[in-house]
What does this fold into?
Amino acid sequence: MSEETEMSLLKTPLYDYYKRKDIKLIDFGGWALPVQFTKLAEEHKAVREQAGMFDVSHMGEIIVCGEGSAEWLNRLVTNDVKVMKVNQAQYNTMTNEAGGTLDDLLLFKFSADHFLVTPNAVNTEKIYQWMVMNKEKSIKIENVSNNYGLIALQGPNAERILKSMTQRDLSSLKSYFFLPSEKFGDIEEVIVSRTGYTGEDGFELYVKWNQTQKLWDKILKAGVCHGLKECGLGARDTLRLEAGMALYGQELTEEISPLEGGVGFAVKVDKEKPFIGQESLKKQKIEGLKRISRGFELVEKGIARHNYPVLNQESEVIGTVTSGTQSPTLGKSIGMMIIDKKYAEFGNKIWIQVRKKQIEARITKKDWLKNIKNRKEGI
It folds into this structure.
């Protein structure tokens, strides 16, 4: 990447740190971010076995507050906001009238009238404008993305590391719950959420933009004896794929509904006051999906990349690869695809067009990580 290109990109609060450390950066959705700090396989293994830390400050943050905020948000998102408790996070999607996915995101409930919405970086402005367009008078919406840095600390040792930095008993913080204002030394008002995008236990820390570097350094120091490694985008992608987690722009798009994209657990189509897109998604459920998301494993050597065609035995195109990688944990090539439902039975043979070669694969569930952990525990 040229210096001119790099200078035109958006920069996280750790940009100067990357430059001092001579970390190679790439253009990721308009942001200058590292693919890796050392080696992808080492960073991936650290998260699976010890701990890894990611700079995800490019993600968006939008505050929603005002009387009736919960009810209003419930008419914009597919999951049921009404069941959320105070200090709980919820995975969600926003859809258009046709049921296509505008974004997948997290909601954080501070009170009935105060929420934090965290869209994907590339969708922050789109989601903000969508919310403003559908705003009610009592609702206040503010894009505060420039106020927050975001650090993800993930892996089996994540709790031990963070515990050494605070008096708070983090063991009582359940998955998908958060602490609204924590202090780490002289770093105050940190939102600590037990969430992540790796399939491992861990935390995401929303910190004031100008305090992000200081918190990063503190965590690094605390993690020395716990095998902590700095991690880049490469490991983040292999980790989430092994965990079967969807990525916006691949498994989910404005042309792929959350039902088709494999996150139907976050879609409640019987809300009394319907969300935007509810009728379209309800119709998809009633009539049955024509295409669905599935996992696959290659039988032969090769890696199936995004947008590679999926074929049946007659070499007819029956689907498209949405994500693919060589799994560092499994030592084999895995991926996710969207495929015509009539061909989607688990165990079926398919073929992936990898450049000029058709490579055989098997349809699987997206439960690779769960199976790995079950084997380790002797289940």
The chain has a mean pLDDT of 96.
